[in-house]
Specification:
Elements: E1 2-5, H1 8-16, E2 25-27, E3 42-43, H2 45-48, H3 58-64, E4 69-71, H4 75-90, E5 95-100, E6 103-107, H5 113-131, E7 135-139, H6 143-153, E8 158-160, H7 166-170, H8 183-191, H9 197-201, H10 205-212, H11 215-223, E9 239-250, H12 253-273, E10 276-287, E11 292-303, H13 306-325, E12 332-340, E13 343-344, H14 347-361
Parallel strand pairs: 2-4, 7-8
Antiparallel strand pairs: 1-6, 1-7, 2-3, 5-6, 9-12, 10-11, 10-12, 10-13
Helix pairs in contact: 4-5, 10-11, 12-13
This protein binds a DNA duplex through helix 3, helix 8, strand 9, strand 11 and strand 12.
DNA sequence: TCTGGGGTCCTAGGACCC
DNA sequence: TCTGGGGTCCTAGGACCC
């Protein structure tokens, strides 16, 4: 059972501002703060009627819907609401798998489509009445089909796909409706004669695997409506990053350097709050032409704390910058600092790291007691 | 009319090892 | 004088998601 909260950020804000219910509301950088390079994060359905949608440049949304009420984002508020939702969902399923701040799947074992519908109605009603959050719900025997069903249920609807009807349900839909198929893959599929999901059901597995890698097998299973058990992962986050887009594109190292330092410190504090250590550090630039360059380096042992992160990030940022100065000399639009190969900070791992540092300083092949 | 700030997974080539 | 078959790790980039 896939649960997707409708216009989530806006819905969270409307809980505090009931006077705005029924009006075009946009969560994003308010135009009253001056021209921004930001985008719409969430739009109420009243605003969507004007053509406003998430990820749209704010300036464009202002033109489309000049009377919309803009609210600056409050991510801490949305995180709290998301946790309220998960707590509610856990009362109905032993296993709840969160996919994003506004989506989660309940893993269930139900006797019939009718039972699924009854439960979906209960969950939807509780979300609305207890948390004042509208949700769309899809039910199927595989996650991608449940998600597709949820998309068809928006807004505030329920779509249950019984297993024997799954293939017929997806067959007429365009391949773009498949989660994981974006513009590029859509075009590739179209060139191979796959327009609708039903076309994929007849394809040869080996053929699709050759052209689309491991994704080919998933495409066929989905098109044939095959059930797929949900695998729960207990792994923690794999990376953490933080980005800033400059108000004006930057063309001097002097201006870049303090920003790298600030982002690295911010990231380090976030990792510290989460009790995470990192095994690799990276820096990325998005250039004025919107392409990206990245440099990432693995560390000999995991590290924590802001001093080393700042040092590593500055070195990488400088390298990436000098490489560009020897070439196209583009300006930096967005700066990112990221960490990868994250591990939880525990007593045991901390002591192993100390061992690793001593061992390497003692030279290769030595056993340190 | 320009395009945020987070993330995940996959592929591919090179270095290196047995 | 030439060179197999298997593997891991690292880095860069691409596609996609909310």
């Amino acid at each position: 059972m896939y649960v997707d909260l409708d216009a989530f950020y806006v819905s969270c804000e409307l809980r505090d501002r009931p006077d705005l219910v029924g009006k075009p509301v946009i969560v994003g950088p308010p135009p009253s703060d001056g021209p921004s390079r930001g985008v719409v994060l969430s739009a109420s359905y009243e605003a969507r009627a004007f053509g406003v949608h998430s990820a749209q440049p704010a300036a464009q949304a202002v033109r489309l819907c000049p009377d919309a009420v803009w609210i600056p984002p409050d991510f801490a508020k949305y995180e709290r609401a998301s946790e309220e939702v998960r707590t509610l969902l856990r009362r109905h399923a032993s296993s709840v798998v969160p996919f994003s701040i506004d989506e989660a799947a309940l893993v269930l074992d139900l006797p019939s489509a009718a039972a699924a519908r009854t439960l979906a109605e209960t969950v939807q009603k509780e979300l609305r009445e207890q948390l004042a959050l509208p949700a769309s719900i899809g039910v199927a025997t595989s996650r991608p089909i449940a998600k597709i069903a949820t998309d068809r249920a928006k807004p505030a609807g329920i779509v249950v796909v019984p297993p024997e009807e799954a293939a017929a349900f997806v067959a007429p839909l365009p391949v773009r409706a498949i989660p994981g198929v974006g513009p590029k893959t859509e075009e590739l599929l179209r060139r191979h004669g796959f327009e609708r999901i039903g076309d994929l059901a007849k394809a040869h597995a080996s053929d699709l695997r050759r052209r689309f890698g491991t994704f080919g097998d998933e495409l066929i299973a989905l098109a044939r409506g095959e059930p797929r058990p949900e695998v729960e992962s207990t792994a923690g986050p794999r990376s953490r990053s933080t980005d800033r887009t400059f108000a004006v594109d930057v063309d001097r190292w002097d201006a870049l350097e303090p920003a790298v330092r600030a982002l690295a410190e911010e990231l380090a504090h976030g990792l510290d709050r989460e009790a995470l250590r990192y095994g690799a550090v990276g820096v990325a630039y998005r250039w004025a032409d919107f392409t990206r360059s990245q440099r990432i380096r693995s560390l000999p042992a995991t590290q924590g704390g802001s001093a080393s992160l700042v040092e590593q990030a500055l070195r990488l940022a400088r390298e990436l910058w000098e490489a560009e100065q020897g070439g196209r000399r583009r300006r930096v639009r967005t700066l990112s600092v990221r960490t990868e190969r994250l591990v939880e900070r525990t007593q045991r791992q901390a002591s192993l790291d100390v061992f690793g540092a001593e061992a390497s300083s003692a030279g290769p092949g030595r056993v340190v007691k």
